[in-house]
Amino acid sequence: PGLGAWTSALYNGGVQRIYGLEPAPAYINHLQELAAPAGEDISILKKDGYNWETYIDLKEDQYLGSLVDTDWSRLHPRLMFTGIIPKTSVGEQLLAQFATCIINRMALHTFGRIQMALWLPDQLLSKFTSGPGSPARCKMGVVTEACASVSVVYSTETAVFPKAMYHLVHVKPFPKKLLKSDWDVFEYVLRHIAVMPRQPLSKMVR
């Protein structure tokens, strides 16, 4: 997908209502022009998906306020979050924060048990999904494993601009997180393991 291509694909595929987040003035006018023929079915909002205030704003009645569903025994029947995560350190930070938000039911996940469909570059997919023993195993992957299932829906070397290997992944939060401890304790241990992976656990968490 390029500028607006993924939104167009969703709309043409039958998604009934789309809110697009785009804070950059250089892009938002173009996106709004592309969305204009769809009328109210597509709304391009000058809001930043990297800013947690955005998700508070989306709880207003004019956006998604009436769709909040706190029943985590089921996937939210009407909302899904999707986007393209860039191959940058900022993209990696955002992806890690998404996992943290699932486990703590923050930001986007205050709306309910929201599925996500994310385009991830090859390197981030490895960090997001690698299991025990993998060199790519990291804090983000452990947090994700504790709160959601991740499956690859589609992989491509040509569909995402600029051309690079990208994967469309389906992230499905668990009804209940797998943690047996408080988040603060879990996060403290993980942080120290990530910083000093070759040190004995007893030394790192002393």
Automatic annotation (TrEMBL):
Pfam families assigned to the protein according to its UniProt record, in alphabetical order: RrnaAD
InterPro entries: KsgA/Erm, SAM-dependent_MTases_sf
PANTHER family according to UniProt: DIMETHYLADENOSINE TRANSFERASE (PTHR11727), DIMETHYLADENOSINE TRANSFERASE 1, MITOCHONDRIAL (PTHR11727:SF17)
Record carries keyword Acetylation: no
Keywords: Methyltransferase, RNA-binding, rRNA processing, S-adenosyl-L-methionine, Transferase
GO cellular component: mitochondrial DNA-directed RNA polymerase complex; mitochondrial matrix
Domain of life: Eukaryota
UniProt record similarity statement: Belongs to the class I-like SAM-binding methyltransferase superfamily. rRNA adenine N(6)-methyltransferase family.
Enzyme Commission numbers on file: 2.1.1.-
UniProt name for this protein: rRNA adenine N(6)-methyltransferase
GO biological process: methylation; rRNA processing; transcription initiation at mitochondrial promoter
A GO term for molecular function: RNA binding
